[in-house]
Amino acid sequence: MSCSMAMVSSPAFSPSRISISCKGPQETLSLNPSSPSASVSPCSRSCSSSPFRAWFQRAASGLREINVGVVGASSFPSGTAVDGTQSPPPLSSGGSGLLLKRKRPARISIPLTRTFTFVPEVTAVSREVEVESTQYAVCCKKGRNRMLMEDRHKATLDLNGDPKLAFFGIFDGHGGMRAAEFASENMGEFIVQVLSTTGASLEDVEQAIRIGYLKTDTEFLKEEADGGASCVTALVRDGNLVVSNAGDCRAVLSRAGKAEALTSDHRPSREDEKERIESLGGYVLCHRGTWRLQGTLAVSRGIGDSHLKQWVIPEPETKTINIEAECEFLILASDGLWDKVSNQEAVDTARAMLINGDGASSLSACKKLVDLSTARGSLDDISVMIVKLQEFV
């Protein structure tokens, strides 16, 4: 007698669908686990004492005892079922098409892979930058919650061989350092290029700065890089100070000890900026305690931000003053300072060291302001530059 087991087509295994056919005269064993015992028809007389009957009855009450499609002598220890009772005799494979021997899956061969080293596109600056000369000093410190320093600065003295012509800038990157890096390296040069072809009037200088900002934005967008940057710049020329900004970096003048803000932050919450954004189909909402353009960006002007370019414009606001004897120094700084330190407090802190103190250096004053903001919980990058204006008179 030869036996075979078959399963009725089903998307999942179900013991009620198992039948065993004994290739003898009208011998069929049908298993239904829903009943207390298996029903045998019509071979009950010839198969009632068969060891298959007791074995499959036990299997119906515990599915874990049957490995579907792999029933044979190799499925369990010789002579013993899973529950410790006597197992059925091994099934014959002859003619039934039943898989009798359990086969292990083929070993998976995983080839060795090469190890690649990640190289950033732009070399990160160190955690802290300190620079000092007789005319200026700057201190930049990476924020405690930042992986990379995104702030940049620029100071170019003796432009075109003129000791009274200089360019200074602080550039606060967001969404990466690429925009701040590009602006710091190119904006001053673009402005000087335009100045070399225009007149010497203040209107010409302000127009040259405007063109320099716009060209910086245009050229950066051509690189198809992510992120953007807020900018604040100061151009010293012929005894005049021309200050410009796009974003939330700020310029504050110490005029005989009194703080005078020369720029106004470009934030979506500013009434005129909000009206401009909404007139262009954008919106401003408060997210995590900060008013943001399209719910994401906390500034409304700057370089880059290609995905928001419809609303984030590079158009700078510019103010020109004559450097008088009471104009002591200029503070250029990112919002990492201004979010924690007021204009007057920044002037008082720096002035106490530079003028009323024991002759401390400009760099020490910059570091003092950076440390003050950090002590008050700033997690942002902090960049502070102090320009000694009387050195250019």
From TrEMBL:
<dbReference type="InterPro" id="IPR000222">
    <property type="entry name" value="PP2C_BS"/>
</dbReference>
<protein>
    <recommendedName>
        <fullName>protein-serine/threonine phosphatase</fullName>
        <ecNumber>3.1.3.16</ecNumber>
    </recommendedName>
</protein>
<keyword id="KW-0479">Metal-binding</keyword>
<keyword id="KW-0460">Magnesium</keyword>
<keyword id="KW-0378">Hydrolase</keyword>
<feature type="region of interest" description="Disordered">
    <location>
        <begin position="79"/>
        <end position="98"/>
    </location>
</feature>
<dbReference type="InterPro" id="IPR015655">
    <property type="entry name" value="PP2C"/>
</dbReference>
<dbReference type="GO" id="GO:0004722">
    <property type="term" value="F:protein serine/threonine phosphatase activity"/>
</dbReference>
<dbReference type="InterPro" id="IPR001932">
    <property type="entry name" value="PPM-type_phosphatase-like_dom"/>
</dbReference>
<dbReference type="GO" id="GO:0046872">
    <property type="term" value="F:metal ion binding"/>
</dbReference>
<comment type="similarity">
    <text>Belongs to the PP2C family.</text>
</comment>
<keyword id="KW-0464">Manganese</keyword>
<keyword id="KW-0904">Protein phosphatase</keyword>
<feature type="domain" description="PPM-type phosphatase">
    <location>
        <begin position="135"/>
        <end position="389"/>
    </location>
</feature>
<dbReference type="GO" id="GO:0009738">
    <property type="term" value="P:abscisic acid-activated signaling pathway"/>
</dbReference>
<dbReference type="InterPro" id="IPR036457">
    <property type="entry name" value="PPM-type-like_dom_sf"/>
</dbReference>
<dbReference type="Pfam" id="PF00481">
    <property type="entry name" value="PP2C"/>
</dbReference>
